[in-house]
Amino acid sequence: MGRMTFIEHDGTRHEVEIEADKSLMQHAADNMVPGIDADCGGECACGTCHVIVDEQWFGKTGAINSNEKQMLEMTPEGAPTSRLACQIEVTDALDGLVVHLPEFQM
Amino acid sequence: MSISTLAMNLSARVVPMQWQIKAAHLAQKTLDRIGLAPKVPEFVESPLPDVSTLAIEDIDVSNPFLWRQGLWGSYFKRLRDEQPVHFQKSSPFGPFWSVTRFDDILFVDKHHELFSAEPIITLGDQPAGLAIETFIAMDPPKHDKQRQAVQNVVAPKNLKEMESLIRQRTQEVLDSLPVDQPFDWVSSVSIELTARMLATLLDFPYEQRRKLVYWSDVAAASPETTGGEVERDEFFPVVAEVAKAFSQLWRDKAARQDAGEEPGFDIISLMLNNEDTKDLIHRPMEFLGNLALLIVGGNDTTRNSMTGGVLALNKFPQEFDKLKSNPALIPNMVSEIIRWQTPLAYMRRVAKVDVELNGQTIRKGDKVVMWYASGNRDERAIDNPDEFIIDRKGARNHLSFGFGVHRCMGNRLAEMQLRILWEELLERFERIEVQGEPEYVQSNFVRGYTRMMVKVSKKNRS
Fold it and tell me: Do A45 and B147 touch (CB under 8 A)?
């Protein structure tokens, strides 16, 4: 199985193992990665699982629908490669994925 | 935009805003006299029946005394169990749908393309003649632009700068409390702390801060919107006073900025420096609406959670012991307080198309009320929902902030204020005892307290 890396704002790295049929948000939650609140439980409705995807990986994380786009626009810390982790479906193609956590969740 | 709003915008450059409001008030009085104004409902309290004696279609959860009489829990439980999407055809606020289960509320909140937040988010419409416009009651894309213009004032980055100031002010308030003798927690702590916060966010004259609280109370309490107690003859003069004070604040800020002063981090400076809002002063209904939103949004909510937390820990004393032995639970407890209290009972929407929801057909144009207070006690989504459990798992997954594009903008500020309050309380006091029953607000919207007597005793410092 592949691995992915979450990097906290202070540089702390968390490596997690890829598990089938789980979003990136669930991977973070199940591995106790701090800084992902997921207040709505994965409904794309709160904006508190915001991650900034490493540029070289951004294209592989899938399309952004209009709901996600709208929630991301509300985040004061948005960046060009921002995503909501609950909307990223994890497959083996993301083996090696690196995402950065913002300093704050909205 | 209504014709009266258009007229106000056109005349705003030459006529002071408070005169426009006075003119609107006079016009309403005249319409009243000749019998043309919409009827304002009158609410007189009497004991409400036990919900088990009512036919399901007669249940009316818009009654502003349900909360005060402690019956809201049983009324909403019956709706959740028997008719989770419920139609009341003849309330004092007109016909409306109630959505009472967690998952259905989440569905409505997420789908702004099906359910519009316009023209207002309270059960009843606004007082006639005063159609205040605010982004909480606007749909995308206009909503998004206006929200983006002001959201930075409460963005986490800004809050970090404010934390030590908030802590210092909290310490001052707590250090001045009487010890071992009863005092009103609502006035001395909850209102005082929120007033200080609002004055800071608005850069409003600090010594006049209690005015902000009074204005906010009046704005949220007209009988036609929420079943509150404020008369029209009190409402209009207050709006005029708010218009005057905020116009002045705006113009002073603009003048200082034109003279070369660096813009501050307060809300008016942010609005003055944003393309979409820099001319807001020329659109009085929008100007008033956005400022009213920020003071109401930051007032009733945090204030009543500050009171509700103390009440909850008195009703569940074992949780207070748990807290004292493990203060690291404070952040989780803050989320649990916000769920348990749910300071705003609901948000209202209007269906934009026919929508099927949990077996019912909601017709285009129908009012739909998402009862957060009920969803937060939904047994299907939350274990033992009536219990207050400070180390509850998943405490953050509550509905009190709403979900989707209208999600509460000040959520992080609220959490921070409550966290600091509890950190400082635990430092100082061994016991915080509620004396007797609190007094409750008359409203179907604000789940608040007007008075709660409390006695605190100091911690023994060893």
Answer: no
